């Protein structure tokens, strides 16, 4: 099965192509640039170099959030448009689960996180058993201090992953001590090839019913709802 994976949910932009169990190609950048301008050229470049035409694709997998509202929308919009126009299935995967997949080697809990500003993080807790990823704590937005107090109750090492870990590394280390393990820098970028493999195991979703998982409303939407009341 030929699968295209797309992730623009944060600064890291990634696209990958699978052919069966083979990663045919992968493009990853971690730049503060507009994904809406760069995504389609990256897809076109990757497919051209891998000699795969759009009509050969059999599934689209997209990182469905949480993360940057604009970033998530860009990836999901492109993924839905391609899935609809090619009449192929679409599958959404948690952006945090994609990042957690970089820690599949770790014997303990895996904590991916994205900074959500105001001392908050998007995060969850995962664990690998063999090649199977298990959700220990569902994806959520939470104050970093509250999250670390919850983790403090767990008697197991925890691997922290993500480009935003450095923002909170001091408080993580102070709260958890030696139980906090920090991944290496190459493991901080979510891999679109991991996204593709996670998507292979998930149930397909109707294109028109597919929606991102923002976890929380954008501030403008929340203010609008509050004003209506």
Task: Note the main attributes of this structure.
34% helix, five-stranded mixed sheet, 2 domains, single chain, Nucleotidyltransferase, domain 5
What does the model show?
It is built from seven helices and ten strands. It is α/β, with parallel strands linked by helices. The chain folds into two domains: about 1-95 and about 190-229, Nucleotidyltransferase, domain 5; about 95-185, ATPase, nucleotide binding domain (Nucleotidyltransferase, domain 5), CATH 3.30.420.40. A five-stranded mixed sheet has the order 3-2-1-4-5, with helices on both faces. The chain is globular and about 50 Å long. The termini are far apart.
Give the gist of this structure.
The protein is an alpha/beta fold. The protein folds into 2 domains: 2-94 and 190-228, Nucleotidyltransferase, domain 5; 96-187, Nucleotidyltransferase, domain 5, CATH 3.30.420.40. Helix content is 34%, strand content 31%.
Shape: globular
CATH architecture of the largest domain: 2-Layer Sandwich
Q: Can you tell me the CATH class of the largest domain?
A: Alpha Beta
Q: Could you report the average pLDDT, rounded to the nearest whole number?
A: 93
Beta-strand content: 25-35%
- Terminal Cα span: 50 Å
Number of domains: 2
């Amino acid at each position: 099965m030929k699968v295209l994976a797309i992730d623009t949910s944060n600064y890291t932009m990634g696209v990958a192509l699978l052919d069966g169990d083979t990663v045919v190609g992968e493009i990853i950048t971690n730049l503060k640039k507009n994904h809406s301008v760069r995504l389609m050229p990256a897809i076109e470049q990757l497919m051209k170099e891998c000699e795969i035409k759009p009509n050969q694709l059999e599934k689209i997998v997209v990182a469905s959030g949480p993360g940057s509202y604009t970033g998530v929308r860009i990836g999901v919009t492109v993924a839905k448009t391609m899935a609809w126009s090619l009449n192929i299935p679409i599958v959404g995967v948690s952006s945090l689960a994609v990042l957690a997949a970089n820690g599949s080697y770790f014997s303990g809990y895996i904590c991916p996180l994205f900074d959500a500003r105001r001392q908050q993080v998007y995060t969850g807790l995962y664990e690998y058993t063999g090649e199977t990823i298990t959700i220990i704590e569902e994806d959520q937005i939470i104050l970093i201090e509250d999250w670390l107090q919850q983790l403090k109750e767990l008697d197991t090492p925890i691997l922290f992953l993500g480009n935003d870990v450095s923002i909170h590394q001091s408080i993580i280390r102070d709260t958890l001590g030696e139980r906090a393990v920090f991944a290496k820098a190459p493991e901080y970028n979510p891999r679109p090839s991991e996204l593709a493999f996670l998507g292979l195991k998930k149930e397909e979703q109707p294109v028109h019913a597919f929606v991102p998982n923002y976890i929380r409303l954008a501030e403008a939407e929340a203010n609008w709802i509050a004003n209506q009341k």
